[in-house]
Write a structure and sequence with these properties.
Length: about 300
């Protein structure tokens, strides 16, 4: 299959990135960060999540962040939703794009959302039933598709089964999460060979964490299947606090360089992304330095 002409980057730094930071980042910094991202040419910026603040205190200011950012008409600002409670809170403030999440791994499901995979799909059904009535666009995530920190190997057929259910429930796209970055060329190929036979390529996206530095080669491989939606995070921020070994997402900067080398268009300005990357890295470094020597 020829490489895609155009790729959409789903910037997940403000959500997947900041959910994993050891320290709470001030709301104003998050808003500034997202506003700067909005000026780079990105078309999708995952903004925050409406999960329980008990589990992810880093994003407890989700309402203030979503309401505080300057939204542009040509950019989608999805938020992560775990259940109906989260959806209802998001709907009150006018959220129009959401992402739901589950996994083919029973053990990860328990760790991340305290329920079985079947129960998580039931929660997603409750969410999507309401969201569809309200014309809210729904993206789906599957975590641990190439391996689970608790369960080990995950079979492509198990991924396919849950991916098909997400689509049936109303997700316009399923993002395949290599949550702990264990994917290799062989395992990515084995997974995509199975999925691509049953799911249109336009409904698949990839979400690689870069734990072992293999994300870029895995993305390159996914492009050869025609996949043209890639999740990434400015500065390689990211991780899941409930997945041991989940380090940062693949850096948006690195993905843009790969795509530029391959002659694939994104409309995203690398120089502007580098500036935002510098801004957030600097902030996090200063915050870290102040914490280890509070007199500074
Ligand atoms: P729970 O505690 O297991 O059970 O939460 P619960 O439903 O009984 O709720 C307990 C308390 O939380 C109650 O409050 C609820 O009202 C409240 P209390 O009565 O004790 O005062 N609550 C909420 N509060 C605010 N917003 C809500 C909400 N829901 C319940 N939406 C739950 C279950 C799923 C909510 C919890 O386990 C949770 O929030 N988990 C989120 C975990 C998470 O965010 N993980 C990271 C995101 S996934 C990820 O990063 C992977 C991804 O990037 C792809 C990849 O890389 O693979 C997407
Ligand atoms: Mg992730």
């Amino acid at each position: 299959m020829p490489l895609p002409h155009t790729v959409t980057i789903v910037e997940v730094g403000p959500r997947d990135g900041l959910q994993n930071e050891a320290h709470i980042i001030p709301t104003a910094i998050k808003i500034d960060f997202i506003n700067q991202l909005s000026e780079t040419g990105l078309r999708v910026i995952e903004t925050t999540s409406f999960v329980s603040p008990k589990w992810i205190p880093q994003l407890a200011d989700h309402v203030a962040v979503f309401q505080g950012i300057t939204k542009k008409d040509n950019i989608a600002y999805p938020v992560l939703i775990p259940n109906l409670v989260g959806l209802q809170r998001a709907m009150v403030i006018g959220v129009k794009d959401i992402a739901v999440f589950t996994t083919p791994s029973e053990m990860f499901s328990q760790k991340n959302t305290h329920c079985s995979v079947a129960e998580s799909l039931q929660r997603i059904k409750e969410i999507t039933t309401v969201a569809k009535e309200q014309d809210i666009r729904i993206r789906g995530y599957l975590s641990c598709v190439l391996g689970c920190p608790y369960q080990g190997e995950i079979l492509p057929e198990a991924v396919l089964e849950v991916a098909e259910q997400l689509i049936q429930l109303g997700c316009y796209e399923v993002s395949l999460g290599d949550t702990i970055g264990v994917g290799t060329k062989d395992s990515v190929k084995a997974l995509l060979d199975v999925l691509i036979k049953k799911i249109p390529v336009d409904q698949l996206a990839v979400h690689f964490h870069d734990t072992y530095g293999r994300a870029i080669e895995n993305i390159h491989l996914a492009l050869t299947y025609g996949i043209h939606v890639i999740d990434s995070s400015v500065s390689g921020l990211g991780g899941c606090p409930y997945a041991k070994g989940a380090t940062g997402n693949v850096a948006t900067e690195k993905v843009l360089v790969l795509l530029q080398e391959l002659g694939i268009n994104t409309d995203v300005d690398i120089a502007k992304i580098n500036k935002v990357s510098h801004f957030i890295r600097n902030f996090l470094k200063n915050q870290h330095d102040k914490t280890i020597s509070p007199d500074k």
